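Suppose you are handed only two things: the residues of a chain and a line of SMILES describing 2-acetamido-2-deoxy-beta-D-glucopyranose. What would the bound structure be? This form records exactly that question and the answer produced for it, so the two can be stored side by side and reused later without any lookup.

QUESTION INPUTS
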Amino acid sequence: MIFRTAALSVTLILLVLTEVWAQNPRKRLAPLKPPKVQCCDEVRAMKVQVANLTSLLEELNRKQETDLMNIVRQMMDLDKQNRQQEARVTEAESKYSEINNRVEIMQLQASQSVTQSSSDAIYDCASLYNKNYKISGEYKLPADEFLGTPEIDVFCDMESNGGGWTLIQKRKVGLTSFNRDWKQYKKGFGTIRGDFWLGNDNIFRLTRQPSTLRIEMEDWEGETRYAEYSHFTVKNELNSYKLLIGNYSGNAGNSLRYHNNTNFSTMGKDNDKCVDDCASIRKGGYWYNCCTDSNLNGVFYRHGNQGKNTDGITWYGWHGPNYSLKRVEMKIRPQNFKS
Ligand SMILES: *[C@@H]1O[C@H](CO)[C@@H](O)[C@H](O)[C@H]1NC(C)=O
Ligand SMILES: *[C@@H]1O[C@H](CO)[C@@H](O)[C@H](O)[C@H]1NC(C)=O
Ligand SMILES: *[C@@H]1O[C@H](CO)[C@@H](O)[C@H](O)[C@H]1NC(C)=O
Ligand SMILES: *[C@@H]1O[C@H](CO)[C@@H](O)[C@H](O)[C@H]1NC(C)=O
Ligand SMILES: *[C@@H]1O[C@H](CO)[C@@H](O)[C@H](O)[C@H]1NC(C)=O
Ligand SMILES: [Ca+2]
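ANSWER OUTPUT
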């Protein structure tokens, strides 16, 4: 469109030039006519034509501008439509995965009315995985009639390192406080899709079968590390949810080892091995020894809070005592799990 109008202008200018050219010989061929009048008539005519052309050109310019504006507006409209379409696709996708998840849970609930017998009972995400539920997300584990435990909502990681993982902790959003009392750590708190602690009673129940613990972490630079313990047990409440771990592997450092064989402490319940009250110093519930080495239930600080506090989400083996991690997931599965 722009090129076409430009070409038109050029043609018009050429037309003017040829007109001028055509009139010049006439001027030369008629020397007898009163030159002044002829000259002035011609000049006047030319002036009119030039004025005419100028106004035409101006009009053309205006038209060109509005054309250009129209094109820009059209392009902006298209871009907007594009973005709206994209947003719609994203929304549809997330709705789809949510619906998928719900369908999974419904299927699961339907299947549970049939399968409450021994071998194919559902204990955890690993049993779900073995029943072909391979999408990560929220699931409902059935109540355990024998133990009198209620059904629980869990988040299953069906992808990392073979899948079948039941998350016992997640730190990622940072809006849920982990500075809570014994009762809340016993029952669990937070939201399964966001940040949560699954609950010490639930963790005890899940780790009665020989279990593996995997801890995945991410720092504020986007780097990830992990620590895995092929033995992981948490004792019951009578034994203060004592931690037992063994056989470390990973690339984050063995920063839970110092916490091995210690009882769980929370706000208002100092079970640590220290004159200090680690739970109140580190502002979380954890297997505090004489505090230190890791604090995965500490305070969520945005952008690491480097060098300021030691009560953040720390893992000494990677970022030392005063760097608070961006994301943590603690997950378990049976030692004998095969994907
Ligand atoms: C331009 O010239 C044409 C004919 O040559 C005439 O009809 C028209 O009115 C003129 N326009 C202006 C703006 O002078
Ligand atoms: C851990 O708790 C148990 C009882 O719950 C207690 O007998 C034991 O002494 C505690 N251990 C430590 C190191 O405090
Ligand atoms: C943790 O303590 C138990 C029991 O004392 C021990 O068997 C195990 O090797 C210890 N784990 C580590 C990583 O030291
Ligand atoms: C320790 O872990 C490694 C790899 O995770 C495994 O091959 C080995 O069998 C484990 N050892 C014990 C005693 O569980
Ligand atoms: C934070 O940790 C680093 C590395 O361990 C250390 O050099 C620094 O002194 C610490 N800062 C504070 C305030 O503790
Ligand atoms: Ca103490």
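WHAT STANDS OUT: The CA atoms of residues 110 and 249 lie 39 Å apart. The two ends are 62 Å apart (CA to CA).
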